Amino acid sequence: MDSVSCYLVRGLPSIREGDDLAAMIQDRFPLRDGDVVCIASTVVSKAEGRSRKLGDYTPSPRATEIAGRLDKDPRFVQAVLEESEDVLFDRPFLLVATKFGHIGVNAGIDQSNVGQGRILLLPENPKASADRIRWGLRTDCAVIVTDTCGRAFRCGVAGVAIAWSGIGALRDWRGKRDREGRELEITQEAIVDEIAGMANFLMGEGGDGTPVAVVRGLEYPKSGGGIFRPRDLDVIRDRLGEI
Ligand code: GDP
Ligand code: MN
Ligand code: MN
């Protein structure tokens, strides 16, 4: 692999519930076998009808208490709690594990690029969404559903993969040798996040209207690996209660 290309899919309209993203993408872009189609979770959610009115949420006492402390709308906090399986901490912001296993601030619920008084939940099962979109393509492509997230320890948001299909999450370097002949023992490279980061860079965060980027020229494993550490190996998560 000497070079890769990354293209935006131009001309996508405002996505509405029921839209067939696979059809809309391949109508506008000449996909080829092996392409990695990166799709912002925002539009996957819109197509799946995951927009909600804030006014439809009734805050529980717990949501009201957290919201008061964080200076947030209690209905928004209620929505976050309803999408969560576990609250990792609730100060100075709300970090949760979603029901489908993603860890993110506010359960990845967005208030940008949605209407006034509305919020957009992440897809209910992004892995199923990625599979469905991939199966809807006429070409043999991989699909990555991306979201823009903050990172522990590091400033600035970046694109990450929240689900993928037809590609392995990790490139395994274990057993390979470095330039000095030393065998690599640990290195697994989170390639779906690296690809999502590049795609997210092109998509932008604002009003560009470009939620899909196609990465071409990559060699990648077709399967394998998960992104979140198994619970028993996640020493940082275990210590969060001490914060
Ligand atoms: P997220 O990273 O998945 O939370 O999505 P963002 O809100 O950051 O949006 C990513 C890109 O998709 C930006 O270029 C937005 O302008 C674009 N976008 C968001 N919603 C739509 C839509 O309904 N239609 C189109 N064409 N672009 C959208
Ligand atoms: Mn988002
Ligand atoms: Mn984004």
From TrEMBL:
UniProt keyword annotations, A-Z: GTP-binding, Ligase, Magnesium, Manganese, Metal-binding, Nucleotide-binding, Potassium
Binding positions (a divalent metal cation 2): T148, E205
A single BP term in Gene Ontology: F420-0 metabolic process
Cofactor note: Binds 2 divalent metal cations per subunit. The ions could be magnesium and/or manganese.
GO molecular function term, any single one: coenzyme F420-0:L-glutamate ligase activity
Chemical reaction(s) catalysed: oxidized coenzyme F420-1 + GTP + L-glutamate = oxidized coenzyme F420-2 + GDP + phosphate + H(+); oxidized coenzyme F420-0 + GTP + L-glutamate = oxidized coenzyme F420-1 + GDP + phosphate + H(+)
Residues where a divalent metal cation 1 binds: D110, D147
Family classification: Belongs to the CofE family.
Name of this protein: Coenzyme F420:L-glutamate ligase
Species in which this protein is naturally found: Methanothrix harundinacea
